[in-house]
């Protein structure tokens, strides 16, 4: 697959069409006598030439979308072997893999026995909201060496713990300990755990059956893969706890995304007496009459063990290259190593986020630890390609295969990489472990193509793709997403003094700089507006008649109201602010990377000055009618969704009804005048001068008498008086950024308030008051919702503060840790 991709050098001139054409037209030779037929040949020749050239040109142009910026591979994503193994499968309740293209994976499923299930077997595996678990997530996880997670079902709690130990050349050892305890006093509970190991198209695994205490049983899985070399996975020879039935089966699977299906295919049931009632017991066994699917990619070995609760079991992975291991990481060894790493984690947490000093109690601190741990435990490693499309393609084509190390917004609902979420994620991750964050940022920048574009949503590999409806898979190279990685990079630069910067950090900036430049330039050119120094999000559909307001998915704020009639005349104030911010960060990096070329930094600084010129900003985006910053475009407020009857195109069929948008006023070029997150951007990204009248206005309105944005739980996304407030966008599309409280933007708000409260200016006192109040509201509500529901949520209800949307959402909602510790 990789061979098909053409590598095109960076420096290739853009105007190849003309260049090549010129060469085909030879000047007439001296002895040449021009005749009519020559002219005909010439014209035909030229025509064919142009035809051929334009074909070549369009092939070349169309290849650009899937041509990497430059070869990178392992140069950028260097394996840090101590972080080779990890819980990099955030989409499953418990699973580990290595950072390899075709990793050996391990995972866990479970099933409560002796229940007579009427529908599908509730075999738990991938994180699903439909499982309705009372709570699950990492209570402690350091992003590298250990983790402790509780999974709370109605009647019992599973605790999954792991510890890793370095040794040898292939990523070392690890051990899992799974503990189960009942939450149900009366009835005994029998639970089956299904541990599995699976290959992904390379390597081999084999079970070792030996005579144990309870007869013949699976005691080991032995295997070998390209990166891991030889290894052994060990199971206990003696099972503690009551019962301790065990089963094992070796199977073939179509791929990692089909492992659960494979288990179900091998599942059999027998009748069993349980408290004098007939119940079913499910077990894995070879079922010769259910044959393997034709295209198998994985070998899977399942190890099923069934216990009465409570129980405890350990599974030990040992790398054969780790030769002088003194002991096996199990039993008391495991307990003491876990305790000592956990202790280090607690101390580091206290040092990095001194929450006690901020007046928080043990429960609030545990909440913050869980938020951070879920961000870290939610880091996934993916390998594969996106499907992308440019204007030169009629059908989607493959991006190149590549690694991506990324945190994910939600383990259940969005277990994959999202560009604009990631910048927010890395604000938190970088405060905890800067080198991990740098690795993640580099890995994202590895996605830059030769045009300077990064696909917004990264759906890599079968496991990731199996979670996404097909219409959302294809990424278009005209589409942007807020360049929030600059937020993270800026906060990394702020963390080190430019004079005392370490070699490693300098290297990091040097490495990412050329890619950032390309990315920045892509924004500055492809997302430019009609007027100089204005910007416009691409990707809005102008011809939809079902949307109340055509969505701007690319801005990250999906259905936040913009100009009602998308057009080239639009200019978006949030994008302009993002560009101002990015220009500043680029200038800062250029100073470090190219101190010898002052003009390099100056170029960005000049654009930054222009984009932060408060007068110019006012001219372009300040709506003095409404006293707010606003988008500008072809717009009317008077749009409505109505149910209409349409004639059926099929003759003789009854008419159909559809909900469509109608306009009760002709749109015209004007400010959009919606009051909400978008109008706050010059404040959020600190573009406004501290003595600006507009800042004054924004601060006054923030908690004005009408509380248009202010709530007890944070700032709502859209004024409750806006004509689109909490309106559906189509019949099938509930509101999303039309009132809900989102934590990423609230984070930017407290951060900006903190900024304006500490710089000299007439409004510092006012900013300080708002800062305190907003921070308190946010922390209080997120903590309260977490205590009540067990989760952090995608967004929060502006009327009652309730968590809503997908959960757990420990992407940017976990920024609450930074708000608590006041690190912005
Ligand atoms: C396998 O085949 C046997 C004999 O035909 C049948 O009784 C049994 O139900 C089949 N098992 C499954 C799981 O289909
Ligand atoms: C961004 O684009 C504008 C308009 O084309 C240009 O004048 C400016 O120099 C660009 N900035 C940078 C840093 O490339
Ligand atoms: C605004 O949109 C309307 C409806 O599509 C169109 O007729 C009109 O020409 C547009 N106005 C401008 C200035 O683009």
Automatic annotation (TrEMBL):
The chain crosses the membrane at residues 39-61. It is an enzyme of class 3 (hydrolase). It is found in: Endoplasmic reticulum membrane. It catalyses: N(4)-(alpha-D-Glc-(1->2)-alpha-D-Glc-(1->3)-alpha-D-Glc-(1->3)-alpha-D-Man-(1->2)-alpha-D-Man-(1->2)-alpha-D-Man-(1->3)-[alpha-D-Man-(1->2)-alpha-D-Man-(1->3)-[alpha-D-Man-(1->2)-alpha-D-Man-(1->6)]-alpha-D-Man-(1->6)]-beta-D-Man-(1->4)-beta-D-GlcNAc-(1->4)-beta-D-GlcNAc)-L-asparaginyl-[protein] + H2O = N(4)-(alpha-D-Glc-(1->3)-alpha-D-Glc-(1->3)-alpha-D-Man-(1->2)-alpha-D-Man-(1->2)-alpha-D-Man-(1->3)-[alpha-D-Man-(1->2)-alpha-D-Man-(1->3)-[alpha-D-Man-(1->2)-alpha-D-Man-(1->6)]-alpha-D-Man-(1->6)]-beta-D-Man-(1->4)-beta-D-GlcNAc-(1->4)-beta-D-GlcNAc)-L-asparaginyl-[protein] + beta-D-glucose. Residues 331-822 form the Glycosyl hydrolase family 63 C-terminal domain. GO terms for cellular component: endoplasmic reticulum membrane. Keywords: Endoplasmic reticulum, Glycoprotein, Glycosidase, Hydrolase, Membrane, Signal-anchor, Transmembrane, Transmembrane helix. GO terms for molecular function: Glc3Man9GlcNAc2 oligosaccharide glucosidase activity. Its EC number is 3.2.1.106. Residues 1-22, 543-566 are annotated as: Disordered. Pathway: Glycan metabolism; N-glycan degradation. Its main location: endoplasmic reticulum. InterPro entries: 6-hairpin_glycosidase_sf, 6hp_glycosidase-like_sf, Glyco_hydro_63_C, Glyco_hydro_63N, Glyco_hydro_63N_sf, Glycoside_hydrolase_63. Cleaves the distal alpha 1,2-linked glucose residue from the Glc(3)Man(9)GlcNAc(2) oligosaccharide precursor. This is Mannosyl-oligosaccharide glucosidase. It comes from Phallusia mammillata. The lineage of its organism: Eukaryota, Metazoa, Chordata, Tunicata, Ascidiacea. The gene is Mogs-001.
């Amino acid at each position: 697959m990789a061979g098909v991709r053409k590598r095109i050098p960076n420096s290739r001139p853009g105007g190849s069409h003309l260049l090549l054409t010129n060469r085909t037209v030879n000047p007439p030779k001296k002895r040449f006598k021009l005749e009519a037929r020559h002219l005909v040949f010439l014209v035909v020749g030229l025509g064919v030439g142009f035809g051929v050239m334009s074909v070549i040109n369009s092939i070349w142009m169309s290849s650009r979308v899937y041509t990497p910026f430059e070869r990178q591979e392992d140069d950028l994503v260097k394996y840090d072997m101590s972080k080779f193994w990890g819980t990099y499968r955030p989409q499953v309740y418990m699973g580990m893999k290595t950072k390899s293209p075709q990793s050996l994976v391990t995972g866990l499923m479970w099933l409560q026995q002796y229940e007579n299930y009427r529908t599908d077997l509730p075999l738990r595996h991938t994180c699903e909201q439909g499982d309705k678990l009372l709570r699950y997530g990492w209570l402690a996880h350091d992003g590298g060496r250990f983790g402790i997670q509780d999974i709370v079902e109605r009647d019992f709690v599973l605790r999954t713990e792991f510890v890793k130990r370095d040794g040898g050349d292939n990523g070392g050892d690890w051990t899992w300990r799974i503990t189960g305890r009942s939450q149900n006093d009366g009835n005994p509970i029998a639970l089956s755990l299904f541990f599995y190991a699976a290959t992904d198209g390379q390597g081999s695994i084999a079970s070792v059956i030996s005579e144990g205490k309870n007869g013949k049983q699976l005691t080991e899985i032995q295997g070998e893969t390209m990166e891991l070399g030889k290894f052994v996975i060990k199971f206990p020879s003696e099972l503690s706890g009551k019962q301790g039935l065990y089963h094992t089966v070796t199977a073939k699977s179509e791929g990692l995304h089909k492992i659960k299906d494979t288990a179900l295919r091998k599942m059999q049931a027998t009748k069993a007496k349980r408290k004098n009632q007939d119940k079913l017991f499910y077990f894995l066994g070879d079922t010769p009459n259910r044959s393997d699917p034709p295209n198998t990619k994985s070998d899977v070995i399942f190890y099923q063990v069934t216990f009465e609760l409570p129980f405890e079991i350990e599974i030990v992975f040992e790398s054969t290259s780790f030769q002088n291991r003194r002991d096996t990481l199990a039993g008391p060894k495991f307990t003491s190593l876990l305790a000592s790493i956990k202790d280090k984690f607690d101390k580091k947490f206290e040092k990095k986020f001194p929450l006690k000093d901020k007046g928080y109690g043990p429960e609030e601190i545990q909440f913050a630890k869980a938020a951070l741990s879920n961000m870290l435990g939610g880091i996934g490693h993916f390998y594969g390609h996106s499907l992308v499309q440019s204007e030169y393609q009629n059908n989607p084509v493959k991006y190149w295969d590549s690694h991506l190390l990324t945190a994910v917004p939600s383990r259940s609902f969005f277990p994959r990489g999202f560009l604009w979420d990631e910048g927010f994620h890395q604000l938190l991750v970088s405060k905890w472990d800067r080198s991990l964050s740098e690795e993640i940022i580099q890995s994202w920048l590895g996605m830059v193509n030769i045009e300077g574009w990064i696909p917004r949503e990264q759906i890599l590999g079968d496991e990731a793709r199996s979670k996404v409806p097909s219409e959302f898979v294809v990424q278009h190279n005209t589409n942007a997403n807020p360049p929030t990685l600059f937020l993270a990079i800026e906060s990394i630069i702020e963390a080190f003094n430019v004079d005392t910067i370490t070699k490693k950090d300098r290297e990091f900036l040097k490495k990412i700089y050329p890619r950032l430049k390309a990315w920045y330039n892509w924004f500055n050119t492809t997302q430019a507006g009609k007027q100089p120094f204005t910007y416009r999000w691409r990707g809005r559909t102008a011809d939809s008649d079902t949307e109340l307001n055509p969505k701007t998915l690319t801005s990250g704020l999906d259905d936040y109201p913009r100009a009602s009639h998308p057009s080239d005349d639009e200019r978006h104030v949030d994008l302009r602010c993002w560009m101002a911010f990015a220009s500043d960060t680029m200038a800062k990096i250029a100073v470090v990377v190219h101190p010898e070329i002052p003009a390099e930094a100056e170029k960005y600084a000049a654009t930054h000055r222009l984009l932060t010129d408060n007068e110019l900003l006012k001219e372009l985006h300040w709506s003095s009618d409404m006293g707010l910053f606003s988008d500008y475009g072809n717009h009317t407020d008077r749009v409505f969704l109505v149910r209409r009857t349409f004639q059926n195109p099929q003759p003789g069929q009854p008419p159909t009804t559809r909900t469509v948008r109608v306009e009760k006023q002709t749109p015209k070029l004007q400010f959009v005048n919606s009051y909400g997150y978008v109008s706050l951007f010059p404040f959020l990204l600190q573009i406004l001068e501290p003595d600006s009248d507009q800042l004054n206005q924004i601060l006054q309105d923030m908690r004005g008498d009408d509380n248009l944005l202010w709530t007890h739980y944070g700032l709502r996304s859209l004024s409750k008086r806006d004509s689109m407030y909490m309106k559906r966008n189509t019949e099938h599309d509930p509101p999303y950024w039309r009132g809900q409280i989102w934590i990423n933007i609230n984070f930017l708000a407290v951060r900006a308030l903190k900024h304006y409260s500490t710089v000299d200016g007439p409004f510092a006192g006012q900013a300080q008051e708002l800062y305190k109040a907003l921070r308190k509201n946010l922390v209080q509500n997120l903590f309260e919702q977490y205590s009540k529901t067990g989760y952090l949520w995608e967004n929060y209800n502006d009327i009652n503060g309730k968590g809503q949307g997908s959960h757990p959402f420990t992407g940017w909602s976990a920024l609450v840790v930074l708000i608590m510790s006041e690190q912005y």
